[in-house]
Amino acid sequence: MTKQAPSQIPALPSSKPSRGPKLFYLLDQAHKALFKAADRKLKENGGITSAQQGALFFIGVNAGCLLSELAAGLSLKKSAITGLVSRLEKAELITRLEDKADKRAYHLHLTDKGRTAISAAVPYLISTNQALLAPFSSAETDVIVRFLTHVIELTSEGSSSLSSAASSSPILQEFDQ
After folding, report:
1. How far apart are CA 148 and CA 161, in angstroms?
2. Helix 67-74 crosses helix 78-90 at what angle (to 10 degrees)?
3. What is the pLDDT of residues 124-171, one digit of tens each?
């Protein structure tokens, strides 16, 4: 083992670096609280969960979509979509129509009951968005939207931005040790 000259040895921080706001924790807690409240309200108003509402909205906009398209649109694995679609079908909110060319594929469509569930959810979603953003100015709202979009892009599947940023950060490397 060779010794480094004292001038070549990197200085160690005198104290732990400031970690700043605990964004991961705050985002996790906000997500849990928001979706717990949303599930409660959506079940009261339309008998659906926030996951079901998201699927219904996607199918409503993308009538006839395949399970794989729904999975990609909701950023869920196909195994999670299968159960979600089965529950939606059992609740008579959607129908699955077999693809004529590929008997293994199914096209998803809303039923009248599914359209009614979406209609019941819209006022709640609008009022929730308004309540969440009420304390913020238009400029602050733009920053919030930009930040959340940045998080989505930074962490999206196939993006190496977050992992490469973490591996090159001396501060983050220190926390790994």
Report:
1. 15
2. 110
3. 999 999 999 999 999 999 999 999 999 989 988 766 665 555 444 443
Structure tokens at 155: 């962490």
pTM value is 0.73
What domains appear along the chain, each with residue ranges and CATH number? 48-134 (1.10.10.10), 136-177 (no CATH)
Residue with tokens 């010794």: 3
